[in-house]
Amino acid sequence: MLLTVWILLCPQTLSARQWQMHPADAYKFAQKLYEQQDFQAAATEFDRFVHFFADDDRAPDAAFYAGMARFSMQKYQQAIDAFDRVIRSYPGAKQAIEARFMISRCYQKQNDIESSAMMLRQIIRQQTDPKIRDRARSQMAWVLLKSGDISRARSSFLAISEKNQDRYNVAAIVSSLDDPDEIKHKSPLTAGLLSAVPGGGYLYTGRFREAGVAFFLTSALALASWQCFDEDLPALGALTGLAGLGFYSGSIAGGVASAHKYNYRQSQHFIRRLKDTHGPAVSLQLRPRGAMLAIHGSF
């Protein structure tokens, strides 16, 4: 929309240059900017190409790479809008399929796991090509794994068609997911119970400094409160007692939280190790100069 407004406001400057440019030259210029990682300028030039040469065979690629340039600049909402235009303008093209995969990745970057998975489910529902559907299932499984939803991730891996399971290392991945020794786990309940002794929950999860601080502060405040009451200073004793109770309660809550954080770190470590061991799938990815094989490893 901004591009259209700018074109309307500056017709003489832009039209004189663009209408005299051959489509091949305009596309090569946008390509060069993209390959030089001048993504802002590349996005603008790809947008211009689509506007002035909408009937050119390269228009779907240009529209797609206008979105890719914005994705590379980490402007994820703008990238989603650009990829959505690809889907609406070229619904039957291969670029529309890639645009859906990229929208899913944009949502992942925004930590919107449900929207990312929903887009992948849409691909599975709408596409008939088993390779595309299995690629979406594999990516959805990795997205769910990253969010910590191991059960749904396992189901997504197992939904991959039998003939493509070797390609996505399904058997090895599911075997690792089913092995209880693969992911170390700390019980939040146990951490809470151990926190009855100040710092016990932190000690259980290996956070020794926090354990020492919690034990020292809670004990010091309890001792100070007792001394105040012993010296007939009830107001000060009540104040230090309340402070000590606050630290004690915080120590219990912190111990439980530390168990959850420990489990999350272990889960993420397990996922990274799983990726390093089995790796993501190799799939077709578009490039400005044509199609090439690429590794989809950023989920």
From TrEMBL:
The keyword Signal applies. Keywords: Signal, TPR repeat. Pfam families: YfiO (PF13525). Gene3D superfamilies: Tetratricopeptide repeat domain (1.25.40.10). Residues 20-136 form the Outer membrane lipoprotein BamD-like domain. TPR repeats lie at residues 60-93. The keyword Endoplasmic reticulum does not apply. Transmembrane segments: none annotated. Signal peptide: none annotated. This is Tetratricopeptide (TPR) repeat protein.
